[in-house]
């Protein structure tokens, strides 16, 4: 999914999530915002509105990874030499100002390294180099890990039941569409089934965020993992409600400080004594990014130093009793749902409780990544059995060459210090047929299913999976081989896909622990083309009316017969068509603004889009009502033999209005919730 569509499809999320989601999604986000805006306009004009989803994932910013050899010892000297040989050139080639890396092993800090600039001086001040001991970095969705730990502390204390309905801990009602209980387990495993949306207005009020226009449930709890910032914010609100403390105070006192994170905070803006250690984030063009405020701050507002995060990794790897009991740590690092709930999809990787579970070279890893909308990108990976961890964070979006920096470094770390056998194809004779069945177009479960944005997600958010003919799959230029029936893995990376098959048909795919891919339906495929066709038809008939009026006026001046005057019901029908066209143009305006400003849409300067969207809905509703006079006009025109021009225009108008009404219904254009 391109970075911009992810912001467009789930625009309110902090790019903590990135939205941030995890590294399985990070590779697919390199189309530039200007290009996307131009694509929108061009495709609407050509009626197709067809966009490619996967963007390239280049590792041009890094030297080629070394083949796993097992010859390197994980020492400070070796790690420093490895990092120093890679990071400076990678940052330069990727146009990233600065980065920090921490590596820990056996309870010790192996190294903490800083590279480049914490402040480039772009705003006129003096440049400030990254200080690996003091510079602060915003880690976005990695914030979800301390939040999950805080929630599990309350579970340990018996104050919260992991598998009880969360209504027992809330002071408001969440609209339910399914009978199954909605539990803390579902929140921590991103399987609550929530739609994805949020607010155009920045806020730091957690209570207001979770209560005001919460997203709808679109999947039954526990069935369809779909990364959700709202779900994790709700977990944070439960911590706040049950503990009786503001969330940020509770997590500081019970998680951050016991873990040794004395210069880390969820507070926004930062406390005065910390603010001077945080430089700005930077866009791909080198512009400074304002400090992002968010209501879902348990999901994404954490700011840390590299030494703090090294201490946090050691606390986790040592299963620190200051935070949790040993059995609780293992519970958090174990599958939170299991094959009994997910079926075959569990084989692509599962969520623990807050953690993503992956493997590299057959070794167990728990991890999380995080991305703010612009400027800040981070990841960490823990090897529980090897008591080793690596943390990477940088402060710029960079160019396309930087898109896979974190993944390449993480994989390079595994290749160098924990080598193993590469993934091998199963060699099954039926692999080619299974790959053929999986190939097709899909939508992420992280998607606006229940708002007007649903009409556009099949065009901008779809994922295309191809098969090679030999049983291999291609996803975003990544090749995957089948390792067992209906399970494919990347040969030299972490990506995995597992299919759920019912009645011989692929009904869903898991792409990593917290993403489900849903096949695009014919109805969804038709939404954008139908909109485009209706746009052209309404433009044609709208232009034809004044042209016809001019023709009749000229004919009258020349003394020619012009036929009967246009009756009032025809004028009403035409007015309805003009209103429907106005609705389409308003939707188009919204779409272009969203795409062109995908990374700044939540900065508080686009609240005017809310009344614009409501206006579009009102106009759209009037366009639906206009079907009645349009149908009456066509019937009367046929009965009175009004002439082929009038009959044709009436038929075109009615067809366009009916098709557009179908689009509005199927695309949720008229649902009360805007997802804003």
Please tell me about this protein's structure.
This protein has 676 residues and is α+β, with helices and mostly antiparallel strands. The protein folds into four domains: 57-141 and 265-417, Beta-lactamase (3-Layer(aba) Sandwich); 148-243, no CATH class; 431-521, Lipocalin, CATH 2.40.128; 523-666, no CATH class. 39% of the residues lie in helices and 15% in strands. It has helices spanning 3-9, 23-26, 33-46, 76-94, 144-156, 184-188, 206-211, 229-243, 247-256, 272-275, 306-317, 326-332, 339-342, 405-417, 431-438, 457-460, 522-557, 568-596, 609-625, 627-639, 644-666; strands spanning 98-105, 108-119, 128-129, 136-138, 281-282, 288-289, 303-305, 356-360, 363-371, 377-383, 388-394, 440-444, 462-467, 473-475, 478-484, 487-490, 496-502, 505-511, 516-519. The strands form four sheets. Strands 12-13-14-15-16-17-18-19 form an eight-stranded antiparallel beta barrel. Helix 18 (568-596) packs across helix 20 (627-639) and helix 19 crosses helix 21 (644-666). Mean pLDDT is 86; it is low at 1-60.
Summarize the structure.
The chain is an alpha+beta fold. It has four domains: 238 residues, DD-peptidase/beta-lactamase superfamily (Beta-lactamase, 3-Layer(aba) Sandwich); 96 residues, no CATH class; 91 residues, Beta Barrel (Lipocalin), CATH 2.40.128; 144 residues, no CATH class. It is built from 21 helices and 19 strands.
């Amino acid at each position: 999914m391109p970075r911009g569509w992810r912001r467009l499809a789930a625009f309110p999320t902090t790019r903590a999530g990135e939205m941030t989601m995890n590294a399985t999604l990070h590779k697919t986000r390199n189309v530039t915002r200007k290009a996307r805006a131009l694509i929108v306009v061009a495709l609407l004009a050509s009626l197709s509105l067809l966009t490619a989803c996967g963007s390239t994932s280049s590792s041009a910013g890094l030297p080629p990874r070394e083949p796993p050899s097992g010859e390197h010892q994980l020492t400070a000297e070796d790690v420093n030499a490895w990092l120093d040989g890679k990071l400076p050139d990678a940052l330069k080639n990727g146009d990233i100002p600065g980065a920090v890396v921490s590596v820990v092993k056996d309870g010790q800090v192996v190294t903490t390294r800083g590279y480049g600039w914490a402040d480039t001086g772009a705003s006129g001040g003096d440049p400030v180099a990254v200080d690996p001991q003091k510079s602060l970095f915003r880690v976005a969705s990695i914030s979800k890990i301390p939040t999950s730990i805080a929630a599990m502390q309350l579970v340990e204390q018996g104050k919260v039941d992991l598998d009880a309905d969360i209504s027992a801990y809330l002071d408001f009602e969440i609209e339910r569409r399914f009978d199954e209980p909605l539990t803390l387990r579902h929140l921590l495993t991103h399987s609550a089934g929530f739609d994805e949306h949020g607010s155009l207005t920045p806020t730091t009020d957690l209570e207001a965020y979770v209560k005001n226009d919460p997203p709808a449930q679109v999947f039954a709890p526990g069935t369809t993992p779909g990364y959700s910032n709202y779900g994790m914010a709700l977990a944070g609100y439960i911590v706040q409600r049950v503990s009786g403390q503001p969330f940020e105070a509770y997590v500081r006192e019970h998680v951050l400080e016991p873990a040794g994170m004395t210069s880390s905070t969820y507070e926004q803006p930062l406390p005065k004594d910390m603010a001077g250690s945080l430089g700005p984030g930077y866009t791909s063009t080198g512009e400074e990014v304002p400090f992002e405020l968010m209501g879902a701050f348990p999901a994404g507002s954490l700011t840390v130093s590299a030494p703090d995060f090294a201490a946090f990794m050691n606390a986790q790897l040592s299963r620190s009793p200051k935070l949790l009991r040993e059995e609780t740590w293992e519970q958090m690092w174990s599958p939170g749902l299991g094959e009994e709930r997910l079926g075959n999809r569990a084989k692509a990787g599962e969520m623990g409780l807050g953690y993503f579970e992956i493997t590299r070279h057959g070794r167990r890893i728990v991890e999380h990544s995080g991305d703010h909308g612009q400027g800040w990108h981070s990841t960490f990976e823990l090897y529980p059995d090897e008591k080793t961890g690596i943390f990477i964070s940088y402060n710029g979006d960079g160019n396309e060459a930087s898109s896979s920096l974190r993944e390449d470094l993480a994989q390079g770390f595994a290749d160098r210090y924990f080598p193993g056998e590469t993934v091998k194809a199963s060699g099954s004779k039926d692999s080619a047929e299974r790959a053929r069945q999986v190939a097709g177009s899909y939508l992420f479960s992280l998607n606006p299913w229940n708002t007007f944005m649903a009409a556009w997600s099949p065009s901008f958010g779809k994922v295309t999976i191809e098969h090679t003919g030999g049983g291999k799959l291609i996803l975003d230029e990544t090749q995957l081989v089948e390792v067992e029936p209906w399970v494919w893995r990347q040969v030299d990376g972490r990506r995995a896909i597992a299919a759920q098959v019912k009645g011989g048909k692929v009904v869903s795919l898991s792409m990593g622990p917290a993403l489900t891919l849903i096949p695009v339906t014919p109805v969804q495929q038709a939404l954008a083309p139908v909109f485009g066709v209706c746009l052209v038809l309404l433009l044609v008939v709208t232009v034809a009316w004044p042209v016809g009026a001019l023709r009749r006026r000229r004919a009258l001046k020349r003394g020619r017969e012009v036929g009967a005057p246009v009756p009032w019901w025809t004028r009403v029908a035409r007015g309805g068509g003009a209103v429907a066209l106005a609705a389409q143009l308003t939707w188009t305006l919204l779409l272009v603004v969203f795409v062109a400003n995908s990374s700044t849409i939540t900065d508080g300067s686009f609240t005017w889009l809310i009344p614009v969207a409501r206006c579009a809905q009102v106009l759209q509703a009037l366009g639906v009502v206009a079907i009645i006079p349009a149908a009456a006009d066509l019937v009367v025109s046929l009965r009175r033999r009004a002439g082929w021009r009038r009959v044709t225009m009436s038929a075109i108008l009615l067809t366009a209005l009916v098709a557009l009404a179908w689009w509005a219904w199927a695309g949720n254009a008229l649902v009360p919730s805007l997802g804003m």
